[in-house]
Amino acid sequence: MLFDTHAHYNDPAFDGDRESLLASMPEQGVARIVDPGCSLESSRDVVALAQRHDHVFAAVGIHPQDCGDFTPAQLEELRSLARQPKVVAIGEIGLDYYWADNPPREKQKEALRAQMALAQGLDLPVIIHNRDAHADSLEIVKEFPEVRGVFHSFAGSVEMARELLKRGWMLSFNGVITFKNARKAPEVVAAVPLDRLMIETDAPFLAPEPYRGRRNDSGYVHLVAEKIAAIRGITPQEVELATWENANRFFGLT
Ligand code: NI
């Protein structure tokens, strides 16, 4: 059974077929999905989505791109959302220095630190988005030694991966590792212990080859498992089993 640990079904790309597509996932072999919110509004949406589908779980958080007006009042609303049934993590949260018009770096760090503290208080894992902010992300991870988390769509170096692994963190990979120009990620995939890997789609984005450029959905997550298997020289079934167990353990699911 496959576990897609990161997909955004609240995205408008799914407005035409969201419920039927999600309902089809167990028969496609995808038995569990975590859908992380990126704002208060989308966090509310994914909590509701998880209520409608047995195999869907939610994470709540404010993405660095959406943290421009982050306030303590928003944190309190996240706290109450995080206590709803089937909320398994705080995310997606993090730092994104790629886009010039993103909120200022200091604001992003403030929102990330506040949400790390929230996760610590609630004893929930975190889902981290990190783009072009490796050093600052790692620095904040080190400030919260009690918080466990995953770097989703991990794009750092083997050295950075080792720093995170040493602290008990997980790394998650998606269709990016199947792209022809992917270099660093396959190197990391080969170096990470199998019990620290998770798989995801990041749907509707980043569809794996040979579907690159199309709308992505959890039905393609097996292609990520197959690519990991090819890189590591093991069977897709071994990757499927390990990532299923890893994700359930990480999110506290039985
Ligand atoms: Ni995402």
Structure, described:
The chain contains nine helices and eight strands. It has 254 residues and is α/β, with parallel strands linked by helices. It has a single domain (2-8, 64-250), classed as Metal-dependent hydrolases (TIM Barrel, Alpha-Beta Barrel), CATH 3.20.20.140. Strands 1-2-3-4-5-6-7-8 form an eight-stranded parallel β-sheet. β5 (126-131), α5 and β6 (149-151) form a beta-alpha-beta unit. It is globular, with a radius of gyration of 17 Å. The mean pLDDT is 97. The chain binds nickel (II) ion (NI). Residues 6, 8, 36, 92, 202 line the site of nickel (II) ion.
Task: Describe the secondary-structure layout.
Blueprint: E1 2-4, H1 18-24, E2 30-36, H2 40-52, E3 56-60, H3 72-82, E4 87-96, H4 105-122, E5 126-131, H5 134-143, E6 149-151, H6 158-166, E7 170-173, H7 184-191, E8 197-199, H8 221-232, H9 236-250
Parallel strand pairs: 1-2, 2-3, 3-4, 4-5, 5-6, 6-7, 7-8
Helix pairs in contact: 2-3, 8-9
The protein binds nickel (II) ion.
Summary keywords:
single chain, 254 residues, alpha/beta, TIM Barrel, eight-stranded parallel sheet, 9 helices, 8 strands, binds nickel (II) ion
CATH topology: TIM Barrel
- pLDDT < 50 runs, ≥5 residues: none
| Overall pLDDT level | 97
- For the record, the CATH class is Alpha Beta
Percent strand: 15-25%
> What is the number of helical segments per DSSP (H or I, 4+ residues)?
9
Amount of helix: 40-55%
Question: Helix- and strand-based class?
Answer: alpha/beta
What gross morphology would you assign? globular
Count of discrete domains: 1
CA-CA gap between termini: 14 Å
Q: Give helix and strand order, one letter per element, not per position.
A: EHEHEHEHEHEHEHEHH
Name the bound molecules. nickel (II) ion
